[in-house]
Every structure is written in C-alpha cells, then in structure tokens.
Design a protein that fits this description.
The longest helix is centred in the last third of the chain and has 14 residues, at 112-125. By secondary structure, the chain is an alpha/beta fold. The chain contains four helices and ten strands, in the order βββαβαβαβαββββ. It is globular. The chain has helices at 30-39, 54-61, 79-91, 112-125, and strands at 3-9, 24-25, 28-29, 45-50, 68-71, 99-104, 129-134, 137-147, 152-154, 165-169. Helix content is 26%, strand content 30%.
Length: 175
C-alpha cells in the first residue's frame, strides 16, 4: 500500500480572524505539530493545500523539504476545491499513491497512533474508506484511490456509502 497525506489548510479562519493552523501548540504551532505526527507514519507523499494564508504557511514550512505545498486559487469556493486540488497534485507524482489521508490542519489531538490505527483497520477490513469517529462525528478520512481513464479521486464521502466504510472510534483517553 502506497499512502499519501493531504493536509487542508486553505480557509480564512474568519471566526478567529487569523491563521488558525498557525496558532501556538506545545512547542510549535498546530500545522507543524500535525506535520510531525504525519511524518511518523512515513507517507510516500505529504502535501499541504493552502489558500488564504498561503504566504504565511510558506514562511513557516520553508525548511520542510519533504513537504509539498500547493496553492488552491479557488479556496473561497470551499473545502471540496482543496480536496480536488490536492488529489490532482498527488496523482501527478511519479509514484502515485493507492490510499490517501484527508486531514484538516487545525486538529491538535490527531496523532500518529490514530493514523496508524486507521491504516491497520483498512488493511484488516479492506474497506475503501476508513473514517475516524469521535462522539458520533466523522472526522479524518482515509480512502482508497479510485482511478479511471479520465479522472481519479477518493471514493465518495463516508455518509453516502456506509457499507464500504470502516469507522475507527476513539476517545480522548487514547490520545
């Protein structure tokens, strides 16, 4: 299995009024903390999709040579455009991935153990989609990449195809 990770960091964080993904967390910020956790599962590709705070994120990530950053010029049209931009970018790589994590950049409690447990669940169940679930809410998604002659992408979201979806349910005690 060849795994890629797309971190979505394109939003304007209008409720906070500043780059939420760059807020301080532990000894770093939310985004860098997430990147450190993701690197522990050794993905083949690690991509951050930016938007409103593109320049600020570039300044924070310029020393991360093993992290690709791509700007989503349509970020204001919603998260789906960032997912599309990320998948298109990853699929153009010389060694395309077979599975993708779709992560949002402001999740401080997402860690390498949870990601590894989701990988393990997918391998055991062979489900096309594995979603993290906390308190009945789906979050992080890990999905099998579907390829056709004209396009590629992840299977449809987990709410539309529950039979193909596995759920990794966790509590804060595991984090």
């Amino acid at each position: 299995m060849s795994t890629g990770v797309i971190i979505l960091a394109a939003g304007a964080a209008t409720r906070i009024g500043r780059a939420k993904m760059l807020l301080p967390y532990q000894s770093t910020n939310l985004l860098l903390h997430l990147v450190q956790e993701v690197k522990q599962i050794q993905p083949q590709h690690l991509l951050i999709v930016t938007g409103f705070y593109h320049q600020l994120i570039l300044e924070q990530m310029n020393w991360q040579k093993d992290v690709d950053i791509v700007y989503n010029e349509n970020w204001q049209k919603g998260m789906a455009t960032s997912i599309q931009k990320g998948i298109e970018y990853v699929m153009q790589k010389p060694l395309p991935v077979t599975h993708l994590f779709l992560l949002v950049s402001d999740q401080p409690f997402l860690n390498s153990t949870l990601l590894q447990n989701m990988l393990t669940l997918q391998q055991h169940t062979q489900k096309g989609i594995v979603a993290a679930e906390y308190d009945g809410i789906n979050g992080t998604i890990f999905c099998k990449v579907i390829r056709t002659e004209r396009r590629c992408g992840c299977q449809k979201n987990s709410t539309s195809i529950p039979k193909r979806c596995g759920y990794y349910c966790f509590s804060f005690r595991e984090i």
